[in-house]
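Morning. Coffee machine broken again, so started the prediction first thing and wrote up yesterday's gels while waiting. Chain of 168 residues, entered below exactly as on the submission form.
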Amino acid sequence: MKRWYVLDEKISQVEQILIATLLAIMILLAFAQIVLRNFFATGFSWGDSLVRYLVVWVGFVGAAIATKEGKHITIEVISRWVSGAGRKVILAISHFSSAAICGLLTWAGIKFIWFEAQMGGTAFYKIPVWIPELIIPITFGLMTLRYTLCLVTDFVTSTARANKTECG
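Came back before lunch.
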């Protein structure tokens, strides 16, 4: 389990660098497109498509980061009134449900990529459309692993986050 934590920290560092880089590229490209269109009546033919994919990448990488940091939106109606063992059970149900849903979305993402590859479309620069869409199953898979780790950690440790309401 310790190896997973070390690997997760490395992945987290890559995510932080990736999201900052992608966001910077996205903003600069969008700005360049606006300037080129408004002042020079031209633009990059691939610019709008790339910006759309960058938005998807930033969103999915951001979701993976939110999972790591325990900052996803949660509904805490019951957990506010429950403490101790009851709270631990609610957290376990929450982590299990989140892992299961993310696991199903990982599988759906893999099937989606497979179908996109079969269709043979291109995104920009004649790159197959399924390549930039790989972020979908990758991030959902990572979120599945992180929620599963939270679930396992809560059962293994004796003082398993008794007062913590989120995975992080």
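The two ends are 15 Å apart (CA to CA). Going to sketch it on the whiteboard this afternoon.
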